[in-house]
């Protein structure tokens, strides 16, 4: 059974979707919730599910590198195989990404390459999509590379934009899809069914 | 009944989809097929459907502006209400776009803003999408502005990318969707059901 750690910076509904699916399907051990600060909803969800939560807040470290070095040591000590970014807003240094190459996935609330990259997170993504006037948005699970939202795409699903949508309404609709996709991708990853070659990702049946 | 002109540079399958839908639903008069050169498939399709075809080839004019001035005169003389770009590869000068403001629509074989803009046409769009590794592509009907593929979006539909896709296979799948969307958008436009405000487009029921 593969070990994972989930990184979250907010309420943790994407994290919860992985907890719930794993309780049903038992495809991994969630070794840690890594939180970017105290007091976020994701920590409460970890506690309820009996998952250890560790806080790695910028203010506790002299540099981002030091924070991620310490975090790497924790994850490697716990033999974590995969890292799942589920709303992680902290910048990740290339050294950390290199250390866990092809073992970090992220979920992004748009159809990459639309509305992604630096500055596109949370509601800002949906604000940008509505302001552009797209009729189809969606969600993307991708491997994490040094370029923000630039890694190989594992899975994408389209979500319609409807008349009268606000960023909040569109976010809610996209989140429903995220909560299906993310646990599915984590399961496929843990079951060794995701094959990556450069930017091309295939899912084995 | 509104008058339209369809502009095409190639085989004209998008053009054909408008001809076929209009034969069933009679939502417009197709006054002209405008072809960017002699000998393209779209001209044959126009002849078969009894639609006048006019060729506006660069080589016959001293400048692009002169070509489009002459084309404007033709279209205005024929009281053309809307222009439908159905695979039109010639650059359109801002003066022409201004003259027919909010009366030109284009179909593009991706989910704009992904894989669009200068250089993205025909198979190149699908090559770029496959090379990037997206799992969802699609098609977009949009109003034409001076910025290539930059106008307000009328309609978008998602099309899945499948394992083993080549640019040709993906193009074929997207074309099937284009042939549904384009006639529908032309019909909605001619029936006055498309409302545009800045970048926001709504379709009235």
From TrEMBL, chains A, B:
Cite the active-site annotation. Answer: 108
Q: Which UniProt keywords apply?
A: Purine biosynthesis, Transferase
Site Raises pKa of active site His: list residues. 149
Please give the biological process terms from Gene Ontology that the record holds: 'de novo' IMP biosynthetic process
UniProt record similarity statement = Belongs to the GART family.
Q: What's its job?
A: Catalyzes the transfer of a formyl group from 10-formyltetrahydrofolate to 5-phospho-ribosyl-glycinamide (GAR), producing 5-phospho-ribosyl-N-formylglycinamide (FGAR) and tetrahydrofolate.
Name the chain's protein: Phosphoribosylglycinamide formyltransferase
The record's gene field reads: purN
């Amino acid at each position: 059974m593969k070990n994972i750690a989930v990184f979250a910076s907010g309420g943790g509904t994407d994290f919860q979707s992985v907890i719930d699916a794993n309780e049903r399907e038992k495809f991994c051990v969630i070794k840690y919730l890594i939180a970017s600060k105290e007091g976020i909803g994701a920590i409460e969800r970890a506690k309820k599910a009996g998952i250890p939560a560790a806080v790695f807040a910028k203010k506790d470290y002299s540099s981002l590198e030091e924070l991620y070095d310490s975090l790497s040591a924790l994850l490697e000590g716990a033999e974590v195989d995969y890292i799942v970014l589920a709303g992680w807003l902290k910048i990740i240094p290339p050294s950390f990404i290199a250390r866990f190459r092809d073992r970090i996935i992220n979920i992004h609330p748009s159809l990459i390459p639309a509305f992604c990259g630096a500055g596109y997170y949370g509601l800002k993504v949906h604000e940008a999509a509505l302001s552009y006037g797209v009729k189809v948005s969606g969600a993307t699970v991708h491997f994490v590379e040094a370029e923000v939202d630039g890694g190989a795409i594992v899975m994408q699903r389209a979500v319609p934009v409807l008349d009268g949508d606000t960023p909040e309404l569109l976010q809610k609709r996209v989140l429903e899809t995220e909560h299906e996709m993310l646990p599915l991708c984590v399961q496929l990853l843990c079951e060794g069914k995701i094959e990556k070659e450069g930017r091309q990702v295939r899912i084995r049946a």
